[in-house]
Amino acid sequence: MSYKFQAGKMYRMPTHFGPSLGPRQGEGGRKYDNLESPKMTAFSVSFLSNREQLEELLPEGFAVGAEPVVTVAIQYVTEIEWLAGHGYNTLGVSFPAVFTGKKDHVTGNFLTVLWENLTDAIIRGREELGFSKIYCEIPEPRIYQGQTHCFASWMGFKFMDLKIENWKQVPAEEVSSAANKQNGDGTLHYKYIPKTGEWGKADVAYAVLTPYDIPNRVVKEMWQGEGTVRFYKAAWEDLPTQCNIVNTFHNLEIKEYRGATMVKTTGAKDLSDQRILQ
Amino acid sequence: MSYKFQAGKMYRMPTHFGPSLGPRQGEGGRKYDNLESPKMTAFSVSFLSNREQLEELLPEGFAVGAEPVVTVAIQYVTEIEWLAGHGYNTLGVSFPAVFTGKKDHVTGNFLTVLWENLTDAIIRGREELGFSKIYCEIPEPRIYQGQTHCFASWMGFKFMDLKIENWKQVPAEEVSSAANKQNGDGTLHYKYIPKTGEWGKADVAYAVLTPYDIPNRVVKEMWQGEGTVRFYKAAWEDLPTQCNIVNTFHNLEIKEYRGATMVKTTGAKDLSDQRILQ
Amino acid sequence: MSYKFQAGKMYRMPTHFGPSLGPRQGEGGRKYDNLESPKMTAFSVSFLSNREQLEELLPEGFAVGAEPVVTVAIQYVTEIEWLAGHGYNTLGVSFPAVFTGKKDHVTGNFLTVLWENLTDAIIRGREELGFSKIYCEIPEPRIYQGQTHCFASWMGFKFMDLKIENWKQVPAEEVSSAANKQNGDGTLHYKYIPKTGEWGKADVAYAVLTPYDIPNRVVKEMWQGEGTVRFYKAAWEDLPTQCNIVNTFHNLEIKEYRGATMVKTTGAKDLSDQRILQ
Amino acid sequence: MSYKFQAGKMYRMPTHFGPSLGPRQGEGGRKYDNLESPKMTAFSVSFLSNREQLEELLPEGFAVGAEPVVTVAIQYVTEIEWLAGHGYNTLGVSFPAVFTGKKDHVTGNFLTVLWENLTDAIIRGREELGFSKIYCEIPEPRIYQGQTHCFASWMGFKFMDLKIENWKQVPAEEVSSAANKQNGDGTLHYKYIPKTGEWGKADVAYAVLTPYDIPNRVVKEMWQGEGTVRFYKAAWEDLPTQCNIVNTFHNLEIKEYRGATMVKTTGAKDLSDQRILQ
Q1: Would the pLDDT of C273 be above 70?
Q2: Does A155 contact D at CB distance below 8 Å?
Q3: DSSP string, C214-256
Q4: Shortest Cα distance from A266 to chain B (angstroms)?
Q5: Rounded to whole angstroms, how far apart are CA atoms B139 and D98?
Q6: pTM
Q7: Yes or no, beta carbons of C15 and D112 under 8 Å apart
Q8: Taking CB atoms and an 8 Å limit, are B240 and A10 in contact across chains?
Q9: Is the CB of residue C96 less than 8 Å from the CB of residue C110?
């Protein structure tokens, strides 16, 4: 007898080995607390860019938010429960946007792409959540004489350098308000899955929201600094699967830098509050 | 102005940087020939297994084929055009199956899972083709005193050893018939994409066929040998994202080995003939 | 004109590109402070073993110290100045020993082997310092529900698991005395370089001492726990370059565990006080 | 009782676990045949350079040979017996030189540096043979539309690109003479081991020769093409352990290219004929 999908259980390819294992469903269907872990060290650099360039990166229904400020954020995450305590790293590029649908009107940060260095996380994020996750190498940062240097590459081609220095710690009493400054309803995405065989058509195409609130997240430290970020021009031969993405960022105007931050946090959520926007 | 999808072009997340780059669509929409390349060295070991165990791995509409023979195939591929000449490796587990739908009745090898060591290929294969691709490390084989040893691991946990020895080359005049022995309509898959937010429901769920024919593929050498394959029992801590898969193979009955092969080929197809079964 | 060695400068193969770059000599001959960095997180598990087995691991002139307690220590190091801020990890096995030479009589921990995951550090340590450094993969630890799991492998063969749990932090006021408990003169090594062409003869063979004191090192946190360590039996095919080492540890008697520790430190020394024992 | 060195056996740090394992001494002291294996694919690009620049790379006793032609050679080696069938890759830079000692007068190719991507091989080559081996990442080549692209990096900084195209196979009857064209007595090296504690002094410093003859090596295929090679300028931060080496090659004059080759071979020798020059 062929198998049947169990009602109420999550599945993912391959579906043949029972309910899927991942951040939102563990062995036997159990949930993860994400209470004291994962631990995250996140660096970001922001810059004022060109509103017209950013608009071209938005699908229908979206518009650039109040200010065309791009944030490049790189996160080094450890002690992840659904990975039995392993970690992985991410690199994202986002800017403020507004989504207006038939029902929903939400504001937030539009996450254009999120590189990660672990395929298992990429697959789950794309298919379950609609995050635009793709792969690259994200080694640990190089920290020397007060300068933090984060970088990313693909098959040996380094496509990004992010450097921050002149670090100043944010006093404990100001951390909470600074951490919550990042207003809006959450993070905006656009989920798209192509239809097999009918090339150019879609099986899935809808806007998605990651609600802002992460109740378990505790900010342990916050620092501010001055930073720069560079994306390098890539020939197709250098990055045959993502030169279009990297070159778009290479060509993005940097009008002025808007500061850099480092945040150390514990706790997370399993993102099961992710929802389709209509 | 937000962007519009170009008619007739293929897209994939992130859709914001123009038409996607991949095996079926290169820069400016060009196609790849796959004429003299890629180059592939493929090893496989087959064994007679238990029909009931295999049936439990089949979604509705599928049944086990004539003989419950499982094939574990590992492929080392180089000179891939859409990767600008880079390569990657794969490890698949399949067995004969029959699909009976409302319109289609096809036979072939049901590919239960295909591990690959390159995320870019995994994403494209899952979303565009419906292949059940997931990630693992697949280093180059170890070849010593007539024995070929292929292996695979995830985050340092080795979950499979495949060993072949007593190699005998198939005479050139017999290669063509031996290569075409693998009858049926092609390779069978089940594409499944979960629906965001409505956990347990699907956005996409359909059977898919990779038609058998690969006109450009030329078999350069074929060898036969004797081989064994072992999947190791994994605790959840060892393989938190795929212990269910590896343990299923660990528990699969091996009634008798049915030989091992090595095939060296050139040429491929872009799989744009992949089609949904109904 | 061929080049001449500059007097007073350190060299290493290849000597043809000027004075060497390393922990004890930077660009233009500058020294490194190692004041606030590197940062280190070190885990260790100790066990009472068999005195006779340990004696067999000691070169002439050495004897096992007061108690045959073996310590397996794994260190994750970041922000290393001579690496421009990169880091690397190490795994060492040591036990107390006494060296009696013609002039010197010293006690300390005899470091039988030190695995590291960075070749540049291995070469420098072997040739300049006489550390018995060899290579293996040492990924970041897996930390899950209060258990820390450290592991090491070579070409996909995992040869060691070290697990610690039931962590209790050592109160700040006791850290200093606990950190200095590790008495003796320092770490003992045996440097040996074979003579080219006269196989079986040595170019270099002498005992070496790393003096105990590290003035810049500050212990930031100290924890105690309960731990176990396992070395796995390796066939020659599994570890063709180091099965003799791993199997020796696999066969080592574990009479009883003697606790486990975690220490977080900043600061180091450049080890230029390393000296030959006579 | 402490251990004693066994007479006639080779040792290497750590010496405490019995005779060493390596290319020239296997388990129980056995030798390796290297008859049908390893298999090697070697690419090289040569160029006429500046005699004065090359002279500055030679230790005392050496002079540049007939023509100041530099060869950059990259080798992808598999099925290595002493590694139980694993492989590794190398990247070397050499030019013709003459050594005149008290006894010896030999000509050959002076190997200034040999990068390898396997530490186990690097340690053995440095200490036993006097090869100037250091580490870098050497991924498999990228081969696309008739162009072969080899590259090398260190911690994500790509320092070399080597590209060859317009390949023409050398007819079988000319391979033997072409393969033996490379005259001279062998490959020249300078072995140097620093003395511990007396910084700037040497424990070992002598010239070494790898005799030319490799009786077991069979050239299976030889191709000629047109190639270029680029070493990239590195800041100390990019390559803190080897910027001096890479920048020397970056600054090397390229007067004209002298062709490129690809050679596929089987067989090797264990290099136990390596000898000190006097």
Answers
A1: yes
A2: yes
A3: -TT-EEEEEEEEEEEEEEPP--TTT-TTTHHHHHHHHTS---E
A4: 21
A5: 41
A6: 0.97
A7: no
A8: no
A9: yes
